Amino acid sequence: MTIREIISYLESVAPPSYQEAYDNAGLILGHPETIIESALLTLDVTEAVIDEAIETGCKLIIAHHPILFKGIKRINGHTYVERCIIKAIKNDIAIYAAHTNLDSVQGGVNSKICEKIGLTNLAILSPAKEQLVKLVTFVPEGHLEKVRESLFSIGAGAIGKYNNSSFTGEGIGTFLAGADSNPFVGEIGEIHFEKESRIEIILPKYLKNSAIDALLESHPYEEVSYDIYPLENSLQDVGSGMIGELAGAEQEIDFLQRIIQIFGSKSIKHTYLLGKPIRKVAVCGGSGSFLLPHAIAAKADIFITADMKYHDFFDAEEKIVIADIGHYESEQFTKELFYEILIKKFPNFALRLSEVKTNPVLYLCEQ
Ligand SMILES: [Zn+2]
Question: Selecting from 3.40.50.2300, 3.40.1390.30, 3.40.50.80, 3.40.50.620, what CATH number does the domain 3-103+333-353 have?
């Protein structure tokens, strides 16, 4: 199995274009054509995780958090990041990260958290903007089906639970074929009027190049006329955070105790309880303070996240309970998620869940 085969499948589940602008998800270290026999799945890459990969013979580490996040100008072993890179290179270990792109998709990090809590009716808390485009093209009679099918085959026209969505209208196209042209219909040097169908189809931006390839391949004209428009529509199935419902209402304190059990949190930092039962729960694995207004607007009773700052807690304004359960704790099931995604596609490939507890945060509790 090559690294490319593994990551191209992972990226069909969590397309890299869904990562945030600040992120660095993707193949961080290593060559995609390298043949590998096993992969180590982890939340973080640390020196202990690299050691584990060496000991277990895993030549690929698949992590949630990218080990390289910003520019690095020297690699001389002064920081743990540099030491990890040096050790990985010396031992031919590749490192791949699926980070905010895996946070953003249905079936990603936040879906896993919702599943652990037992939430249903899941929806994205803040759907992604500027991720959709519309392709419009014009096709002569007799070629409509072929072009439309070819666009559907690469995934264009998917809206929520519906596939193959498009609109077709009829009209007249005009063109004047130039001296060196080889027109499919009409004569060189004469203006031509052709009965054409206009196809409109919506698609995520990351499929744009595949859609253009599919269009050019299936369209009979020498020069294919098409337009691509950016859309302001949100992509409902992709975005930040998630909201879901409990099967039945739970008392706040009982719910928080259950969260401690599920996530193994040593402590939960939370705002004042409101004396209301918990039904709707918003979640965001890792640093989720930016989603607090969305959680309030979605009328969640509680927001489960991490890395909340002192002043963020004031913003709850008695409209919601904020529970900061710890960054590692909230995302710890991500390696399990990698396993579940990959094992379905590659049932015979050796996948190993890292046994290193990478959480750098410890808790000293008052006795
Ligand atoms: Zn994180």
Answer: 3.40.1390.30
CA-CA distance, 306 to 323, in Å (whole number)? 8
Task: List, for residues 37-84, the tens digit of each pLDDT value.
Answer: 999 999 999 999 999 999 999 999 999 999 999 889 999 999 999 999
Q: Is 154 helix (H, G, I), strand (E, B) or coil?
A: coil
CA of 214 to the centre of ligand 1 (A): 37
**d(CA 26, ligand 1 centre) in Å:** 15
Taking the centre of ligand 1 as the mean of its atom positions, its distance from the CA of residue 287, in whole angstroms, is: 7
Measured in whole angstroms, the distance separating CA 179 from the mean position of its chain's CA atoms is 49
pLDDT at 159: 86
Domains of the chain: which residue ranges?
3-103+333-353, 105-126+239-325, 132-233
Q: Write down the pLDDT at residue 236.
A: 84
CATH class of the region 132-233: alpha beta
Please, what's the b/e burial string for 258-269 (b: 16 or more CB within 10 A of its CB; e: otherwise)?
Answer: ebeebbebeebe
Cα distances (Å, whole numbers) of residue 168 to 165, 194, 252: 10, 16, 52
